[in-house]
């Protein structure tokens, strides 16, 4: 009976052993697997970061751009701080940045290499600062830029080399600065520009405004989006609309030289200078030779003038006082 009892109990014990081993294996391999959560970007000190790569550093009274920027940050909010300058490589490490907000700081200077490394940046807001000038090439690295705001600064001049060629820029805001004109090269280097905001500038309706007036006629806006742009100077054009000037109004203005004409001017300039210098040297040599010849002629003429007119008379006081002269007189 004992043999039959153990023979019936053995399968049950084997089943219980297998179940216990399976439970242990499940706890070891399944229970210890770490749960994966979405990665939070490395956050700069004093800022708050969220999923999706957004770093919020707004209104923290920051005097400089915070250190520790990561390539995982795609949006950086630095508005309403006390940043007064952007040094070279100010955003080093944030090469994946798409959105950069620097509104209402105290920016007075932006180094020409401040935005280096931000080749994918699409949105840049520098409005409501204290910028008076910008260095050539400041925005050249931002080849993917689509929106740029420089509104509410103190800019008086914006040369084409500052923006460079921005092939994807669609919106450029220059409102409330001190601009009186825009050069033709600036707008020609922005082939996809669709929105140009210009209100609040002291526009001078002179020949320098011709490129801007031409661009405004070629890019009409709906009535609801049209800005009212007036001339401030000269006096006879005060309160004249910029869009009211046809191309015929600029016929008296001198035409700009083409690239080939400029090349000819630059080539002939040094040549003409060297030629005029050679002519001056040749004339100087001729005049010097003529002067030397005239002086030689004068020196040869002086002995002839000193000869006596009477060859038989005394030639000097010594001859008059000689014994022979006395005997002759006696």
Automatic annotation (TrEMBL):
SUPFAM superfamilies per the UniProt record, alphabetical: L domain-like
BP GO terms, sorted: axonogenesis; positive regulation of synapse assembly; potassium ion transmembrane transport
Name the record gives this protein: LRRCT domain-containing protein
Cell compartment(s), UniProt: Cell membrane; Membrane
Top-level taxon of origin: Eukaryota
Stored InterPro entries: Cys-rich_flank_reg_C, Leu-rich_rpt, Leu-rich_rpt_typical-subtyp, LRR_dom_sf
Signal peptide: 1-26
Topology term for the membrane: Single-pass membrane protein; Single-pass type I membrane protein
GO CC annotation: plasma membrane
Coiled-coil region list: none
Pfam families (alphabetical): LRR_8
Higher taxonomy: Eukaryota, Metazoa, Chordata, Craniata, Vertebrata
């Amino acid at each position: 009976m004992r043999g039959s009892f153990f023979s019936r109990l053995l399968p049950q014990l084997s089943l219980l052993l297998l179940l216990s081993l399976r439970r242990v294996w499940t706890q070891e391999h399944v229970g210890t697997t770490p749960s994966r959560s979405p990665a939070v970007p490395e956050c700069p000190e004093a800022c708050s970061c969220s999923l999706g790569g957004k770093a919020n550093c707004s209104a923290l009274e920051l005097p400089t751009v915070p250190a520790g920027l990561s390539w995982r940050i795609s949006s950086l909010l630095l508005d309403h701080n006390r940043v007064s300058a952007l040094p070279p490589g100010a955003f080093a490490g944030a090469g994946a940045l798409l959105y950069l907000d620097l509104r209402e700081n105290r920016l007075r200077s932006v180094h020409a290499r401040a935005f280096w490394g931000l080749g994918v940046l699409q949105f840049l807001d520098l409005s409501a600062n204290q910028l008076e000038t910008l260095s050539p090439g400041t925005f050249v690295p931002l080849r993917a830029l689509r929106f740029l705001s420089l509104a509410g600064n103190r800019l008086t001049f914006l040369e084409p080399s500052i923006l460079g060629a921005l092939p994807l820029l669609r919106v450029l805001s220059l409102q409330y600065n001190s601009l009186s004109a825009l050069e033709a090269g600036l707008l020609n280097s922005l082939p996809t520009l669709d929105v140009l905001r210009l209100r609040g500038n002291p526009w001078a309706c002179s020949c320098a405004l011709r490129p801007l007036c031409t661009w405004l006629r070629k890019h009409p806006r709906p009535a609801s989006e049209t800005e009212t742009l007036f001339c401030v100077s000269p006096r006879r054009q005060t309160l004249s609309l910029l869009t009211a000037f046809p191309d015929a109004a600029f016929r008296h203005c001198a035409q700009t030289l083409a690239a080939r004409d400029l090349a000819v001017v630059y080539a002939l300039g040094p040549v003409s200078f060297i030629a005029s210098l050679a002519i001056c040297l040749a004339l100087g040599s001729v005049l010097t030779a003529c002067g030397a010849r005239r002086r030689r002629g004068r020196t040869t003429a002086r002995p002839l003038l000193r000869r006596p007119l009477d060859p038989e008379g005394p030639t000097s006081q010594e001859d008059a006082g000689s014994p022979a002269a006395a005997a002759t007189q006696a």
